[in-house]
Each structure stands twice: as structure tokens, then as C-alpha cells.
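Researcher: I'm preparing a figure for a lab meeting and need a structural model of a single chain. I don't have an experimental structure, so a prediction will have to do for now. The sequence is pasted below. Please return the structure as C-alpha cells so I can convert it later.
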Amino acid sequence: MKKTNEYQKSYLTVTPNSGHRIGHKLDDLITGFILAEWYGLNYLHSPLPDKMWEDFFGFGEGETSFYKDFRKDLPIISCTPYLGVRYISPRFRFLFKHIEYLDYRIRYILKKIPVKKISEWREPDFWEGSPFSYFKEIFERNSEREVIFCFQRGKRVMLYQIYEWGQQGKVDSDLYLRVIEKLRTKYFSQEHPKKFSYFDTSVISVAVHIRRDDASVENQRFLPISYYKKLLSNLSKILADKPHEFHVYSSGLDREMEEIQKELNPVSSQLRYHPNESAMEAIHHMAIADILVVGNSSFSHWPGFLSSGIKLYHPHFHMFNLDENEWVEVKEDSSFNESHFISLLSSSQKGIDFSDTHAKLQAQ
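Model: Understood. Here is the structure written out cell by cell.
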């Protein structure tokens, strides 16, 4: 890996993918934080389309923004899924604004072509993050140039990747934590009217996200209610002699919300429901909960990364092999390493004594 000081004169920005939900756009922005930190580049902020979300997450504060005429003397290295890596000289800077649209059109056309080999041509698996070799080649090839690197249309690197690469010695082992700390500092340093708490601080708060609305088995965003019933039942047993509350967050049709309540009510008397709650309020409360049960959705992935609490997650998409100091893997049958979970909760800010519970588990 090149030394970071070789790149210090160059810049990097990532354009949030248009036409997608806030979770996808956050995946893009965090790519900018990661790559700038990884290679010691000057970060240029490309804002989210909706300033409301910019203000909520604290993005752009104290950062230089990227705009079409920024450093017109520098070439742009444009990286997209279908057009690939393109060198745009200052003379042809005007072409840059068309890159995203052209890449979108190519993808649209390829998906319409029925011939199997053609439809699979350059079909990149970029949503879950590009491989280490992809970034290594791009940056090392341009290490002697002063340029602006720009990643667009969902070309990204994910947090799970840099955590894994750090474990493997491919990147600095603390890169993941540096990026996470930057993300958390931005979020919690920014005041916002939606950042308040209705949690009872005298009890353990457990936030639970259940994705419904567009979730389906086909798109792999659906977790059956049976998964949540068993998981909450397991948590109820562990927390039985500790004051606690479950806060359930979900959005969808009224009948879907009613079905969730009907199924979960027998599990615990400590359930609090927040159907179709304001997105910002839900995200913030998931981020500040002592425990977060993550759904198959970026809507709760991101509160999980913002949170310093304990997160329980079912591996899927780009959510696997996460930092075991904060994340607990839950299997399909809703089981998880209860001893590990208890040890994390005992050492958390609440500092709760679970010695009796731990002894019972050891005896089983």
C-alpha cells in the first residue's frame, strides 16, 4: 500500500446515488470518508440532495464542498460501474456532468437485452462494495498525479470491508474505528430538533426495527415475524430481572402494523410500538438505545453504526463479520451467543451486573 503522503495534494469526492433511499446515499457518503482517510486525500463533500438530511447527520460541517468548477485546472478520475474508470482532462471538464446519466442509461439498456451473455456483460456486484484490488489499482496508478477522484453511481467501499481488511493487515487496523468515530462525532455534535429522547433512562432500552413496506422474501429484506418473536423472547429471558423496555419501529400499512402488535404482544408486557414514526425520530432513538435489534435495512444499519450500544443483527447483504466488540450475530433460528451478549452489556455504560444470569447460562 502506498504511503498516504503521496496523495495529499489530490482530492476525493463521492456523489450520492440519485433515485435511491437515504440508506444508499449514506453508503456513498461514507465511502468518501473511508477513502480519504485510507489514502490521506483531501475530502470534498458532495452533499445529499435533501439538505434536511445533511443537517440531521451533520454532514458538510467544516468541509470543503465539491462543485463543477472546483479546481478547473485539475483532471477528474471518474469511477462508475458501467463506464468504468475515466480520465477527464480539464479541457473536457464539461463532460463530467453527463457521466452519471450515461452510466444509468447503459445499465438500463443492458438489463433490457435478452441475450444472457450480453445482459451479464460488465454486470458489477457493486452494491455490497468493490474489491480491495479495484481501489488499490486506481489509486496506485494515479499516485504521481494531482487529481480529483470522483466515485459515482454506487461505486463504493463498505464499513464491513475495511474492518475485514484491517483484520487481514491490508489496511491500517484502526481505519474502521477512525471512520466510525468521525461519523459519530459529526452526528452527535450536530444539534437538531428531532434529536431528543423519550426513553426512560432508568431502564434498559431495546430498539427493534422491523422492515415491512417494500420488504419481501425475493428482495431479501424480509425477516419473518417468527424471527422477532423468538429473538425478543430470548432477550426477555436474559433481561427478566432487569428493568427494560422494547421499542418497536416499523412502517407500512395499518394492517401490517396491527399484525406485528398481535404477534409480539404475548412475548412481553414491556413493548412500546412506534408505527410509522418520523424517520428522523426513529433513527435517532435506534442510535441512542442501549440495545438495537437491526432489521434487513439500511434504515437501521446506519443507526447501528452511529450507536455505541450493542447491536444484534442477522447477516445479510453487506452486513456480516462485523466488530464483535459491539455487534452480535443472530442466526436464522433467532439464537445468538448469549454469554458474549451478556458480557458486552455488563461492560456497557449501564454497567449492569449479570453475574447471576451468566452463572445460570454456564450451568445449562
